[in-house]
Amino acid sequence: MKTIRDTRVRFGELAGPLVHGSVLFDWQLISTQEVAAAFGYPFEEILAEDGIPYAPVVVDTTVHRYPALGDEITVETVPIDVGRSSVELLYEVFDADGECLVTAQMTHVTISPSGGACPLPEHVRSAFADACVERDPEVGPTTETVRGPNLPSYVKSVPIRSPYIEGAELAYFEEYPRFAGIALEEFLAKQGTRLGELTGEKQPYRLREWEWEFQSPVQFETELRVECDVRSVDRETIRVAHEFTSDEETNIRGISEYGCFDRTGVPVPFDDEMIAPFEP
Fold first, then answer.
1. What are the tens digits of pLDDT across the range 55-95?
2. How far from 262 is each of 24, 193, 204, 234, 253, CA to CA, in Å?
3. Do residues 6 and 50 touch, judged by C-beta distance below 8 A?
4. Shortest CA distance to 251 belongs to which of 228, 224, 220?
5. How far apart are CA 90 and CA 216, in angstroms?
6. Quick one: CATH architecture of 141-280?
7. Please, what CATH class does the domain formed by 1-139 belong to?
8. What is the pLDDT of residues 166-223, one digit of tens each?
9. Domain limits of the chain?
10. What is the pTM for the complete model shown?
């Protein structure tokens, strides 16, 4: 199912010459709403009953090439698994030449006002089951690493205010990569590395592969703490373990891998000065 058709990347979606990482989350959310409506269980129906529609539970994503200004993108979305209360969707972002730029796999659960998972209506579950395709892409971080010695950790706290919330009055999941990015930039600044002095032909510290598990929603007017532990560093990838907590409860736990890209969005190695702040 084509959930976004032939849409050109716009200036407002950019961070420098390439699409901002959070826009990839936004495209997924738009696509999820299109799928939900097509399968007869739209967001509007769930919100009218004070539910949280299609909340992400697990998100795995790989960026093969970052979309850039002028790229024309299409998002194709298909169900690959369905349970009593969950549906797993595969999202693929293609350019006008049919090259796959981004692959994402997400498990969604609708949350009731009491906080439990809502069972899918039987006709919806049946429709998803009939439409499921057999796909098992290699997406997200594929290897686990033991944390190297003397690698740094850093922390950032963010108050959740109205600009960060969505229709369910919870923190919008597009914002989480922004919070992680702010934490990373503040860490770099404390190490004497200013991102603006490094960007040019190379665009470092962009999300490349990630797997995040959403354990509980982040409420409006709470303080969100972003704890970051660097796991490994090499010329291709900086791997960071993230834990998002509020009110002493873990909301999100995951692994993010940051890469470096050229101005057309193709992955390239980090320079020495780009990885120096993370070395023991």
1. 999 999 999 999 999 999 999 999 999 999 999 999 999 99
2. 18, 19, 9, 17, 29
3. no
4. 224
5. 22
6. Roll (3.10)
7. alpha beta
8. 877 888 887 898 999 999 999 999 999 988 888 889 999 999 999 999 998 899 999 9
9. 1-139, 141-280
10. 0.94
25-38: per-residue pLDDT in tens? 999 999 999 999 99
* Of 241, 217, 218, 222, the residue nearest 230 (C-alpha): 241
Q: Do domains 1-139 and 141-280 have the same CATH topology?
A: yes
The pair of structure tokens assigned to 101 is: 């730029």
